[in-house]
Amino acid sequence: MRWVMKFPVLLIALMLSMAMMLSVGATEIMLVDLLTGRADAVSETIFWEIRLPRVLLAIIVGAGVSVAGAVIQGLFRNPLADPALIGVSSGAALFAAGYMVLDLHTTAFGLLGVSGSAFVGGLLISWLVLEIGKRSGTVSSMLLAGIAFNSIAIAGVGLFSYLSSDLELRSVTFWALGSFNGADWSGVSIALIIPVAIVLLIRESKNLNAVTLGDKEAYYLGIDITRLRQRIVVLTAVIVGVGVALTGIVAFVGLVVPHLVRLTSSSNHSVVIPGSALLGAILVLLADGAGRSIIAPAELPIGILTALLGGPFFVYLIMRQKGKLGI
Amino acid sequence: MTLKLKNCRYGVGSQLLLEDVSASIPSGRVTGILGANGAGKTSLVHVAAGYERAQSGAISLDEIDLKSWSREEKAKKIAVLPQTATLDFPFSVEEVVLMGRIPHESDQATNRVLVAKVLNMFALTDFAQRSYTSLSGGEKQRVQICRVVSQVIDDLSHAHLLFDEPIAPLDIAHQVAFFKLVRDLAVKGAAVGLVLHDIELACQFCDEIILMNEGKILDAGKPAKIITSDSLQQAFDVAVTVTQGPKGTIQLSFRD
């Protein structure tokens, strides 16, 4: 399966998936018609205003959450780690749910909106986790702090769901399950910070490789662990915070995608990070396509699909690759 | 080209781990660091290499205060293998050893040549593409040793190599191969420091011995001078007769 993970193969697969996802949907759009100017006005509007931003957002967010997973696994030296471990997703969910249920749009928070609140929540919780980790100085204490904050945030989301009205509960739930339904150009332009963060993370590949050896080992290779940890957590929080803010939680992608890349090509982060970005973009794009086709014209939230497909596949990988993952 | 500690004191919380320690790991020599569990051997290594900060005293690398060396420059001169190396990702053996080249600006082609050379030194050439996580404990240790050696292989005359209990997971043949490897590196100018538990092997392969007890240096010097029934009684609290053999070898017989 090694050949599948070659970059050119992944790039071509991404292009093909993109072309397919731009065409299919409630309205079939022939890309050839569009390119040759033979498409009608409705198709053009659907293409430019709805489908293209949605596809671009799926690509960017898919790439982002996968890269976030890859670097968090490296930083925690644990192939089972997930960006959720630094509390960013649950922090974002907590603030978004709080915003919706407490009717904060009438207060100063109204300026932030649901997405802005989610972003702030994600950053705030991961900053707390990072601070606690910094004080005790070890990666494991950061991990434990992450678990604690996750539980608190999830309990908070539960509490808000309990307090919410039926209508609010529906939006909290739908948002927590993830969807690219609201994608527009303003969302895409905000999401452009994600590729920037990915490029910055690719530049940390060597350092991340060293960190997998251990804190002492990385120190003796000349790496400032504390600073590196800060950079990784902040960049991850930006990626996941923006991603969750715009599209809700896309589950399991950050865990499964880097795994697939490691199992089929290399553990070297200079391969794992770009490989995860490409594969994550493809898988989320296809999952979004499936989500809007399976029960069309209704939509299945993408988070449900990614977890339903990703979960069993992950179990299968663990069983098949016993011993090779080093868990 | 010597790594020197002068009157160093280091502790964690209220526990004093090193007390008034002065020692040196000189270039061209293999120095064995011996002592009972908790004697301060590992602390000595981490304080000497800068991972842990001494609360008082001075550490110098090539006669310059260790604190004035930048992190990157220090990593080009001091390579350390800590006691427990854990790596849970299926990197290839070559990729793991290549990590030793991280402090250097040398290009990937040069690095691969150097890594191939180091793997060959420890008979690991055939393992280069194997997955690290599929290796046995002893094989993993050999890979880690190669990684540490590759960190300083291009300038051995300025190299300081510190290994914390490097031979524990190795079989006897690879223990001997390891000592031959580090002796060869010392001949080429490297300063080598080894935390060891095997006193007989230490006497046979080390030029100098630092004997530690309860955070202090009990004695330091040539093995034949340092390792005696009395010093071992003091350091390890065991009754042992030391019999001198040919070429600096010794034999220990334990008494009731």
Walk me through what this model shows.
The complex is a heterodimer of chains A (327) and B (256). Chain A is an all-alpha fold and 327 residues long. Chain A is built from 15 helices and no strands. Chain A has one domain (2-320): ABC transporter involved in vitamin B12 uptake, BtuC (Orthogonal Bundle). In chain A, helix 1 packs parallel to helix 14. Chain A is globular. The two termini of chain A are 22 Å apart. The mean pLDDT of chain A is 84. Chain B has 256 residues and is α/β, with parallel strands linked by helices. Chain B has nine helices and twelve strands. In chain B, helix 6 (172-187) links the parallel strand 7 (160-164) and strand 8. In chain B, helix 4 (108-121) packs across helix 5. The longest helix of chain B has 16 residues, at 137-152. Chain B is globular and about 55 Å long. Chain B starts with a strand and ends with a strand. The model of chain B has no long low-confidence stretch (mean pLDDT 92). The interface between A and B is medium-sized, with 29 and 33 residues.
Brief summary of the model shown:
The complex is a heterodimer of chains A (327) and B (256). Chain A has 15 helices and no strands. Chain A has 327 residues and is an all-alpha fold.
